[in-house]
Amino acid sequence: MTKKEFRTTQLYRLKQAQFTTKKESLALTQLLLAHPTFKSAKSIGITYSGALEVETSLIIQAAWRKGKRVYLPKTLPNRQMAFIEHTAKDELVLSSFGVPEPRYEERRVNNEVDLMIVPGIGFATDSHYRIGFGGGYYDRFLAHYPGQTVALVPTAMQFATAEWQIEPFDIPIQELILA
Ligand SMILES: Nc1nc2c(c(=O)[nH]1)N(C=O)[C@@H](CNc1ccc(C(=O)N[C@@H](CCC(=O)O)C(=O)O)cc1)CN2
Ligand SMILES: Nc1ncnc2c1ncn2[C@@H]1O[C@H](COP(=O)(O)OP(=O)(O)OP(=O)(O)O)[C@@H](O)[C@H]1O
């Protein structure tokens, strides 16, 4: 299947499964918090979640409580992203994608966080390939990212093998945490 064809059917599936995904978010959050890579990370990159995704606000709060620094992506022209530090007091703006994003501030950029929690809409549990909403933001970003990558994968996003086409620029995720 082309990525475009896969996205069409997968977004429909995720809409049907959205309450199950939200329920699975709590268990996935607990698995992440117990994970050695998360425990040892001093800085994490994460997004605020959309309606079809694993809920991330509890992860962000837990990371702050444990003294970690939290970075959110600011999307930039040419499908680039910069990760900007997020603290409890700063205000966010709704991006065109529909999730809260920070304002760009050069002195708060860190594109080399210890751990990147990567969103997506489908993950292959054999090869760890992912497919996202189609912006190509993470493929571009991960090509130059030196840290650890992890994804939280609810049942509706799990595929034994990739049913979509894999392209040369696709980058597998190091660790999948499965609901
Ligand atoms: N919660 C969350 N935040 C995230 C992502 C994500 O997957 N999840 N992203 C993961 O990458 C980035 C935003 N991704 C985006 C993906 C597509 C479009 C976009 O412009 N879509 C067009 C149609 C796509 C196209 O160009 O063909 C549109 O909506 O009109 C924008 C942002 C950063 N933040
Ligand atoms: N490393 C890269 N360099 C240049 N272009 C890229 C790179 N990675 C992806 N692209 C471009 O981005 C487009 C979208 O890629 P793809 O369909 O894999 O997005 P995605 O992984 O689903 O989205 P996202 O990473 O934003 O969640 C591709 O058609 C490709 O042209």
Which key phrases capture this entry?
179 residues, alpha/beta, Rossmann fold, six-stranded mixed β-sheet, 11 strands, binds the ligand Nc1nc2c(c(=O)[nH]1)N(C=O)[C@@H](CNc1ccc(C(=O)N[C@@H](CCC(=O)O)C(=O)O)cc1)CN2, binds adenosine-5'-triphosphate, magnesium, ligase
Plain-language structure description:
With 179 residues, the chain is an alpha/beta fold. The chain has one domain: Rossmann fold (3-Layer(aba) Sandwich), CATH 3.40.50.10420. The protein contains five helices and eleven strands. The strands form three sheets. Strands 3-2-1-6-9-11 form a six-stranded mixed β-sheet. A three-stranded mixed β-sheet has the order 8-7-10. Strands 4-5 form a two-stranded antiparallel ribbon. Helix 2 runs parallel beside helix 4. The longest helix is centred in the first third of the chain and has 16 residues. The chain is globular, with a radius of gyration of 15 Å. The structure holds ligand FFO and adenosine-5'-triphosphate. Ligand FFO binds next to strand 2 and helix 5.
Secondary structure elements and pairings:
Blueprint (H helix, E strand, L loop, with lengths): L2 H14 L1 H16 L2 H5 L2 E3 L11 H9 L3 E8 L3 E7 L6 E2 L5 E2 L13 E3 L4 E3 L5 E2 L5 H6 L5 E6 L4 E2 L15 E4 L1
Parallel strand pairs: 1-2, 1-6, 6-9, 7-10, 9-11
Antiparallel strand pairs: 2-3, 4-5, 7-8
Helix pairs in contact: 2-4
The structure holds ligand FFO and adenosine-5'-triphosphate.
